[in-house]
Design a protein that fits this description.
The complex is a heterodimer of chains A (156) and B (307). With 156 residues, chain A is mainly beta. Chain A contains 3 helices and 9 strands; from the N terminus they run αβαββαββββββ. The relative contact order of chain A is 0.16. Chain B folds into 2 domains: 134 residues, Aspartate/ornithine carbamoyltransferase (Rossmann fold, 3-Layer(aba) Sandwich); 155 residues, 3-Layer(aba) Sandwich (Rossmann fold), CATH 3.40.50. Classes of the chains: A mainly beta (156), B alpha/beta (307). Bound molecules: zinc ion (ZN).
Chain lengths: 156, 307
Amino acid sequence: MSTIEQQLQVSAIKSGTVIDHVRAGQALTIVRLLNLAAQHKTVTIGMNLPSRKMGHKDLIKVANYELPPEEANRVAILAPDADINIIANYKIKNKFKVSIPSLIERLIVCPNPHCVSNHEPMGSKFATLHRGETVAVRCWYCEKTFTQDEIVDYRV
Amino acid sequence: MPTNFRNRDILSISEFSKADILKVLEHAQRLKAARRPTLLQGQVLGSCFFEPSTRTRLSFESAMQHLGGGVIGFADPNATSTKKGETLYDTIKIVSGYADVITIRHYLEGAARRAAEASDKPIINCGDGANQHPTQTLIDLFTIAECQKKLNRLNVALVGDLKYGRTVHSLAQALVHFNATLYLVAPDALQLPTQASRELREQGVRFSCHRTIEEVIAKVDILYLTRIQEERFGDPLDYERVKNAFVLSNKQLGRARPNLRILHPLPRVHELLPEVDATPYAQYFEQAHNGLFVREALLGLVLGKLK
Ligand SMILES: [Zn+2]
């Protein structure tokens, strides 16, 4: 990410977290799932920003909050290319890429309407399968495999 | 690696190694040769059928009684508190206090795995929606091994509804261990789903797709027939066009190999004519009968009475 590009697109924050290279269209869902707007945190969202790498991307900034890597990884399936920048005093203090955990629990709503996880009061559980560049998930219960595009709903 | 079945859940055929499969078949063969009327004395089977399946239920309950065990349970979900809104988890938790092993049939996919989370007693999946029915697959393998005197390197035709039929998916998956060559015979609209054929390809299975039984009959050792349901076709005309290509009669068996055997998970409707029953190729009634011994073997193994 070039700093110029970033500064042109969204105003800089003094300290906090910038989640960059989020798949276009996923920013609001991520804010909701990570509960980023809680406790009066200031959140700035950029949507469908032009990106050399991705065509279009979303971007999320949270002021005065350091997003822990395990929290970021929890939603990595929505934004597998995301970069997390921890900002302190207008400078990047730490930068890391998200990594999709091998087991994703209590996040994805199984797209299979006949799956037991959609009918019982219970969590969901998916194993991640890496297929070259793309990632698919396999439901622990109904054993069906889904691509990222087939996942339409998440549990809050 | 030695396989320990004691207290193990039987949920999906994908969790069976080749050694696991061979162990179940070996015990089933012994139980068919010599009965063990006291093997499971004092043990209780909890038979939980949230969806009717008379054949599977009777076969498991009979297996338990042949081994000297007792049976409790329900065959009709209307009779249980599920209708009053009790969760699957709670129902199984309670039954696991009364039983030493639980068989479950449920209309939801993944229900058996959920049941296993509620129970410290072994759970045997007797069909969870369109997902898995592992004991059927073990019965199919036992019957194939019995009538062909081997399991390795056979030519197996899977015929009928390959798109929605869980029986054929599971059998194809299990045959991966035994170097089978698969002939997939189905109307275009009901061919094996892309995901399943990709998995077969990744596992190095030899297979080819066909539109009629005629194309493959002279090449195969096993002809595994399944039912084609009219309601799977959007347009009834599409069904009329293909249905006759998937009806097996004696006429089609003219070019069969002498060792060919026909399997069918039953019940049959019109895809398998009664005239075939009298040919030496018919193996499906024996297959149904074998259900008893394979299920006896599984009960004995998960209860730790067979090693
Ligand atoms: Zn599922």
